[in-house]
Structures are given as structure tokens and as C-alpha cells.
Design a protein that fits this description.
Distance between the termini: 23 Å
Oligomer: single chain
Number of strands: 5
Largest sheet: 5 strands, antiparallel
Structural class: alpha+beta
Amino acid sequence: MTVAEQWMPEPGQRVYERRTGAAVEIMEIGKTGIYVRPLRGGLERVVRRADLIPPDDAPGGFFDWQASRG
């Protein structure tokens, strides 16, 4: 299992969308998907967990910091 598969999103968490790189906040986790809202305004929408970048993988996150030390 990779780290991305182990990551479980939580309401209130701020993450990034894989497709656009936009910062979003997780509003709710439902049966049909994860409801997110862009931090810079916009409409709430439903995405899949695979569509989100876990916080540690985001630019400036833990894994980015670790790679820069190598």
C-alpha cells in the first residue's frame, strides 16, 4: 500500500485537487463521494479520494520537505 491509499480524508482538512492543483477544503464525506469547496471561492462539488492530493504529498508537505533534504 502506498501512503496515498492509507490516507483518510477528514472534514475540515485542506488539501489540493490533482487535476487543477487548486486548494480545497473537505466539507463532508458522503456515500457518493467527498464534498469539497475551493478555498478561493467557488461552488462546492463532489470528488473521489483519488482526485485529492494528501496533505503530506502537497507542495511544501512532509514528503516534499523530505525529498529536498536528499
